[in-house]
């Protein structure tokens, strides 16, 4: 019976929060896109990763409603779990490094899906935002907590029709915000998740965060 590893990616300094991620390390029972999409929809995580080659880090990423060529928190989580120097989603090779409690990946902003990045005047305005209705496109709402220090408060609203009202931590949106602002950021997102970013050479951007592992569960137990 296959096991599903459940990770929390981009945890806060106290180890809490982070965006939940499902990782199927032996996906032979889910050999095609249709079966993987069905499992991702049933699990209901914002993303689920299928590991097709654990030695080369070849991974396949799904939201409950679609397949993604790149996503930040799934790749940080998979890189931490597999303990590799690189992971390979469809978008391209993603280099990995470990730095104490943080796992970092190197990516390019053009790999990230489009997001509407909207700046608000204060943290209080971001905190007070209501959940928008589904089906209106992605919104990444942010405000400076401390502009001089690069500290940002953010919330992410996928506005998808797949049951994900608000994303707790989104590496792809952080990647786009870092490209726009052109500087390293320390982002507090959702209830208390932490995402670190840093521009690199040749248009690359590093995304880093803490990862913790929940108790693995049999995949079959999640299926009705």
TrEMBL record:
- Classification via InterPro entries: Phenazine_PhzF-like
Report the active site residues. 47
Provide a Gene Ontology MF annotation, just one: catalytic activity
* Pfam families with a match to the protein in the record: PhzC-PhzF (PF02567)
Q: Which domain of life is it from?
A: Bacteria
Q: What is this protein called?
A: Phenazine biosynthesis protein PhzC/PhzF
Record organism: Streptomyces lunaelactis
